[in-house]
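Morning run. Coffee first, then this:
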Amino acid sequence: MNIFRTPKRSSGRLDYRWVIVIVGFIINLCIGAIYSYSIFRKPLENLWGITSTESGLPYMVFLAAFAFFMPFAGSFLDRFGPRLTLFLGSSLVAMGWILSGYSSNIYMLTILYGIIGGAGTGTVYAVPITTAAKWFPEKAGIAIGLTVLGFGLSPLLTAPIIAILIELVGPLMTFQYLGIAILLVLLAFSFLLRFPRQFPYESAGSSSQNKEAQLELGRTEMLRTRFFYTLWLAYAIGCLSGFTAVGISAPFGIEIVHIDQMTASAAVSLFAIFNGLGRPLFGWLTDRLKPRAASMLSFSMITSASFLLYFFSVDNAVVFYLGFAVLWLNLGGWLAIAPTSTKVFFGAKNYGKNYGIVITADGVGAILGPIISGWLRDTTGTYLSVLPLIASLALIGILIVYVGFKQG
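And here it is:
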């Protein structure tokens, strides 16, 4: 079935599911400002005289809190609905960003921005993807991919704004200004999200064609399947690779390729396009090719890009842009493959709770990626040492999904 085609049986509810996608895109565009964090790193290192490992702490903790708070957000969402959950999450997001402007050191910033802001972002993030999954029982990949497209494209908007604000008012005041702006947008759109009045939501003809939506597993049942553990491990590897690339993009360009700060910021904006495009692209591929083939394709691309950067990126802007574009594309890809696969394997009825568990793999990748990349940079003196590790893990990922998703 072509989900872009409006069936003849039309009601207000049918068209409203595309409102859900658009609103979800805008919400994710705001909270995806975390992907622009690498622009803060050098200014914070200069401000407080800290190492690259230390400057990555807020980013690492933010992504970890984002992922590990989602199981609670999923339960809260199922109980209280999308509007109240979004209001709660928006308040935490704003609190985290605004209070970060009062930080006196990197550890205070890690608590305020990382823990509070990350928990709020995880809460907000759960709302539009869970809502979209419930409105699209058939071929949910493209709908989820378009919803989270905003998260990936966010640096295209936020990176240049952050770079300009840092030049004008410094990094700490920049956190405050962004927090106020994000809060206003999130509250403005919080009233437009709601679950469909019936479950599963069905468009004309979907009941006969959508067999996979008939499988509905609860959290306990999901944890008994090998598909969960395969998906979790693969997701952790995909996120570790992707978040490492996001976190080192700007400093890698400055130190290895020898571009300036503003050019590095512009590069992050460019990479954001690929991160965004990876979401609907791999959402569509997961619908078409199924999770196994889509996952293997992604890991193969990550491996190739890592080797390309390792051997050819020194003073080579073309390889830098190409390699990191592919890595950002596949981070976006995994942030569509995993939620879509959760829907495919375990159904939509308990989607919020189930994906809340699956996305803890995202948190593990978020913790390990910055720690390992920062340690390797400080130990070896170069970010190049990170790339062989990423390539090796991606090769392991290919094996994991080949075996674990077999006949899936």
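The two ends are 21 Å apart (CA to CA). Good start to the day.
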